[in-house]
């Protein structure tokens, strides 16, 4: 095999989309996929939800999420064109609802916050909610319609991206990168778990929750955040017509229907359990209970799949993009709860950085450098007989 210009590590949405963008731009790319069946990109619900997913503490991330949201229509069209397959994009709205009085207060507080940010939404009464989504429980008290929060069937997207990448000339290698090789602070290659080394001066680390496991790279503060999700099949029963999110008796649940009507994704638990792969009775119970509280009809659906995935979490819930102290290594990880939404912007910006060395302004707050912190302050100690304290380094 000739030496590739770039080795991309990780065959999830971020790695595959980045490899495609690089190859489209003329680079010779090898994509080491790892194990696609374990990728969060296959487990995710696929909400493209900068508005309903935002929280009071994530203003900087919101701007990036919105930037990616705006790219989705053109990104989707390019994926369809390049792969000859659907992208999975569904341009429907998201309806957030509240079950009881406390949930209603929580939803109102959230809507007030959206008002302050100038984010578009419509407040709905119980009756208006049920006119939009007739499957909702009559107990639903109020709602919030967000027309710009869409969804994407992430499995369909991942398949399309893999085809687009292959057509653009990306070479896929099955296996895992064990170590990034370097000499004098510059990348020289990537060694796989089987001992093969791919010589290259440029590596993109895009292996999601596993980013901290690769040797030879600077410390990346990424940890796995476990999430359990269910896939229900409505069969002969009607499914919801749009994404429904709910505050339900203090819990949060979402139901994301697919275009074809045979799948409703119900999620998700958020668990700090490392790479625990167990689907638990409690996790499944709570998701089914909360889904039924919001849409009673879900009790009739078939339980088609239960899955565990690992969100690549970071200390501030935002991704890590761009370069680092190791020349030739580009980071594209830490996408946490928003990796499907962020795929267009992350892939474009990462490919651009690899090819030009310039980082697009939209992601400058998201480099690894933000975790470096100030150098430790010198400690002072009193020295007998000296005029002032001595500085201890
Ligand atoms: C339950 C759940 C629900 C979610 N819902 C949403 C949602 O609604 N909307 C949204 O935007 N996001 C959602 N997310 C988040 C989203 O799934 C992730 O942020 C995104 O998929 C991360 O993509 P990735 O390509 O970085 O990582 P992954 O998709 O995890 O892919 C990483 C790949 O790298 C491979 N790999 C690992 N180590 C190596 C190695 N050493 N060498 C080579 N390959 C390696 C793995 O096998 C894997 O295939 C959800 C996540 C979970 C878990």
UniProtKB/TrEMBL annotation:
The keyword Nucleus does not apply. It comes from the Bacteria. It is an enzyme of class 1 (oxidoreductase). Keywords: Oxidoreductase, Thiamine biosynthesis. Its EC number is 1.4.3.19. Pfam families: DAO. NCBIfam families: thiamin_ThiO (TIGR02352). This is glycine oxidase. It comes from Microlunatus spumicola. The gene is thiO.
